[in-house]
Amino acid sequence: MGGCSFDRPRPTPLTPGLLSDAPKLLAPVATAYGLQLDHHGMEARGVLWRNEENQRMRFEVLAGIIEAEDDKGGITVNDLGCGYGAFFTFLEGRPAMTDGRYYGYDISEDMVKAARQSIQDRRATFSHSLVATHYADYSFASGTYNLKLDNDEAAWKKYVKESLIHLWARTQRALAFNMLSIYGSERQGGLLYADPGEFFDFCIREISPNVVLFHDYSPIDWTIWLRK
Description:
The structure is a single chain. The protein has helices at 22-40, 52-63, 86-91, 109-118, 153-169, 196-206; strands spanning 76-80, 101-106, 124-128, 136-141, 171-180, 211-214, 221-227. By secondary structure, it is an alpha/beta fold. It has one domain: 3-Layer(aba) Sandwich (Rossmann fold), CATH 3.40.50. It has a 7-stranded mixed β-sheet, sandwiched between helices. Strand 4 (136-141), helix 5 and strand 5 form a beta-alpha-beta unit.
């Protein structure tokens, strides 16, 4: 059966200094997501996606990294920035998730509470955390890094890169994440629009040489796949 064992040891604590600024940067973001949830409920707009169609399109691109051989089931998944659990709902009926495990993490306690109340599947666990605390075959971050609010852009990018390094350390096989594109025509205040070339180069240099960039599925964002 594919996937790593469910009883693997929990990871060691964060490297001293890594993500040390994250709690301060993320506190107002967590509050903002709680307000979004209160206003829109458990739907795409509640986690700042335009609609369910666009949210699903991005999930399809991310999930494409899961190998066909995993259709026998048993994979484990980390979902950093899980919101109310929409990505688990997207994955739950797929063959790869048969006897699998999903670990969702979010900085918003309100989001985690909503996910726990709405999803009772034994395969899914939701935690209030800014980092992944389990090892998993596959790790994902969908829209996780988009909302920066008034945080300094350089400081936010530093956080994003440190977060990806940490998430990679908890990943056994592959990682996929998406971000808004600096080349898109749309702009909204409080969001990070990132250069795909900058993050492609960063991933090759600091994470893995096995990098694939997708930027032709949407005019406003891009996705990167990384493999071990």
